[in-house]
Design goal:
about 210 residues, single chain, four-stranded mixed beta sheet, 4 strands, alpha+beta, Glutaredoxin, 9 helices, about 10% strand
Amino acid sequence: MKIEVWSDYVCPFCYIGKRRLEEALKATGLEGNAEVVFKAFQLDPNTPVGEGGSVPEGLAKKYGISLDEAEKMLENVALQAKTVGLNFDVNSMTGANTFNAHRLAKLAEAEGKGDVVSERLLKGHFVSGEAVDHEKTLLSIAEEAGISKERAQQMLHSDEFSDDVKNDIAEAGQIGVRGVPFFVINRKYAISGAQPVEAFADALKKVAAEETK
């Protein structure tokens, strides 16, 4: 089966949802029978590249709430992350424009390293406090995944994969995606949000049963 996942690298529930999907695939024994493809989405495409900024302050401004309320929101998300073994460092997160991160993921996918890079980008933002729109960070992640620094730099200094990212975002709009994560299984079933593992497992078993008919 094919599972397409629209997500963004600064979306906490995208990381949590990724883990829950992985747990469901293991629990159902379908881990080796599923192709998981990550599709680009930007929660805030207007974020200035490389300017960073406090995530709590950005949330407070975006939703018109106090800084204290924004910090509590992040703390609650961090508690949810712990339930799937993720340790978010809410104090080190910085705002980032993810367009180039998505382009790097496309390059990685083309080289058979998409899963590694997607996981590393999420970890970089939420766990390690790295700025995932800084070229230095992206080049380091590329090298860790086995992509040459020169190849990644060549891509970042061009428009390569820009259309692929834009096409993913446009497709999301066409199928009615309003928020991420958004999971589409075999272009037939959709799961919106970081649902419980059981919800993923039920959907996976249903699709698997249909495929064996």
